Amino acid sequence: MVAEGPALNRADWRLRSSTSATTRPEKAAEQLAALAAAAGSGDRLGTKEELRNRCGVSVGTFNEALRLAQTRGVVTVRPGPGGGLFASRQSPMVRLGNSVLALDEDAASVAEAVRIRNALDPLLVEDALRHASAHDVQAMRREQDRMRIAATELDGTAFIHANWALHARIAEASPHAMLRSFYLSLLEIIESHTLSATTPADEPLSEYIESRYDLHARLVDAIADRDQTKAAELIREHNATTVAGPADDGTELFSLAP
Questions:
Q1: What order of strands is seen across the sheet that includes strand 93-96?
Q2: What is the pTM of this model?
Q3: In terms of Cα–Cα distance, which of 6, 57, 65, 64 is closest to 32?
Q4: How many degrees, rounded to 5, is the angle at CA 159 between CA 220 and CA 16?
């Protein structure tokens, strides 16, 4: 099953923005969205300076507008000769447990990064069990609190980012610099390509968030208690999902456990 995140539907986004946009960056972002919608998928819209002048805004305002447009998946930026702003192709949608992530165009890199990250998770949890200090556990609890707040607010995107921040904090307890650095780089790849999170209409986000929050809370408890057996069980449960094939409509689906 595939669900299209509403922020990635250009027509819907423009409709909502037209009634709610009040700031100059939001208005400039609407202009960029309109240009992208009128262009073909992947077409070049112009350089940043050309488009800033067309929007009639300052550099700071345009940069914020560009960030908004990129977050909503309507434009991409390419550096170098011939670079500039381009109309985005339809953003790939990937399954993440019972949730759906909207990614930018490099979904393949995300799938590969998640696969490697899942393979490294047991090593990082083992290191945390052996080496995490009281300060490390306290920092993990803070990220866990961010997950709880996002869960309470049913903010899927904030929940997933807080989840990744917790994994990063677990990794930072490792004394092995190469492993720690590589793992954090993988998390950065995953997070940098993620635009938003949503859920299919028939699969409540609240149930997904509740179950994933509970699993991670128990994982932090196991690390704090130095309970190696429990931690091993939880990380196996955490990484139980696997990569799936393309959906019937050709959209790539990956089952990515956060």
A1: 93-96, 99-103, 194-198
A2: 0.59
A3: 65
A4: 175
Bridge partners, 198 (sequence order): 100
| Cβ atoms within 10 Å, residue 22 | 6
Tokens representing 159 are 């929940």
Choose the weakest-confidence range: 16-30, 61-75, 158-172, 177-191.
16-30
Q: Tell me: the pLDDT tens digits for 86-126?
A: 987 655 555 555 455 666 556 677 778 888 988 999 999 99
Q: Any long-range contacts for 108-112 (C-beta under 8 Å, 24+ apart)?
A: 109/189, 109/193, 110/189, 110/190, 110/193, 110/194, 110/254, 110/256, 111/243, 111/252, 111/254, 111/256
Of 76, 79, 1, the residue nearest 36 (C-alpha): 76
Alpha-carbon distance of 139 to 175, in angstroms, equals 16
pLDDT > 80? residue 170? yes
